[in-house]
Amino acid sequence: MEGREGKGGRQRLFVALDLPDAIRDDIAAWGEAELIDPALRAARRESLHVTLAFLGGRGPDEAAAIAALVRGFEAPGAPLRLEDPVPLPRRGRPSALALPAPSPATADLHRGLAERLVAAGLYEPEKRDFWPHVTVARVRTEGRGARRPEAVARWPGDLPKALKEPFYGVRVTLYRSELQPGGARYVPLAQVELS
Ligand code: ATP
Ligand code: MG
């Protein structure tokens, strides 16, 4: 388990587009009604986000450089919308449940951020295409130390219409992820408001 600081002072970092509070509230309310299967563990309300770049374990110097880059990042607010939940991965036993968040503006944010991080020698782009989404639940694993997800008998129904209306992502945040048995906690390290 990685605590406040992991091995050798490394921290597990990622950059995310934060969702507006009202959207987080609506997703949490939907989750309380729909994420009822005991194998599902809903994401914390305050943890709902769209990952823009996963950075992994970084030392203090890199973390400081990434934080400075995020604070200096300038971009317009990104409109996005949510789609009905999909279990992930799509093949095999699902380990998570996500709401796809298709959005060219969010893809632009991802690209702009990745370009700057790459230029600063702080990021190696992922080979797979960027797929913006909000993870809303994890599937518990079968017993202690097991990695295989439990079987989910009752997947949630579709989103209410109101949650499919477009909205704006208004803030980009660098988070430290603290992995814990009851679910990761994310600690904000640097933030920038989008214009
Ligand atoms: P847990 O792994 O304990 O279920 P978590 O996935 O919420 O918790 P992290 O694994 O630290 O916490 O991930 C933080 C964010 O980065 C999440 O949005 C996650 O989906 C994303 N992420 C994690 N690993 C990768 C990866 N290898 N590539 C892309 N995104 C990743
Ligand atoms: Mg994870």
Output the CATH class name.
Answer: Alpha Beta
Strand order of the largest sheet: 3-1-9-10
Bound molecules: adenosine-5'-triphosphate, magnesium ion
Question: What characteristic shape results from the CA principal axes?
Answer: globular
Overall number of domains: 1
Helical stretch count?
3
Number of strands: 10
Tell me the major beta sheet. 4 strands, antiparallel
Proportion in helices: 10-25%
CATH superfamily, called what? Cyclic phosphodiesterase
| CATH architecture classification | Alpha-Beta Complex
Gyration radius over CA: 17 Å
Poorly predicted residue ranges: none
> Helix and strand string, N-terminal first?
EHEEHEEEHEEEE
The CATH topology label is Cyclic Phosphodiesterase, Chain: A
* Separation of the first and last Cα atoms: 37 Å
Average pLDDT, all residues: 94
Global structural class: alpha+beta
Oligomer: single chain
DSSP strand (E) fraction? Answer: 25-35%
